[in-house]
Design brief:
Number of helices: 1
Strand content: 15-25%
Oligomer: single chain
Structural class: alpha+beta
Radius of gyration: 18 Å
Length: 80
Amino acid sequence: MALLQSVTDLPPLAAASNAARIRRCTFRRLSRVAASTDSGYEVSCLYPDRRVPLPLGAMDSSLEICQACTASHIFRPDED
């Protein structure tokens, strides 16, 4: 028999972002980078041949590049 227990407030897994939403792309690769004080993600683009990744930088700096992409067929269907 399971007993009811009180639930404590848990901290959020990710901080809320005020930045614009980035579209989901089938060619974008995220790599986790751990710095001494905090961790983040490094973004690479694998378009067009998926062999050599093109480094785009951190999430914030790559947002502008990804939003300007004109290859509409690479974005997931639920994003159009």
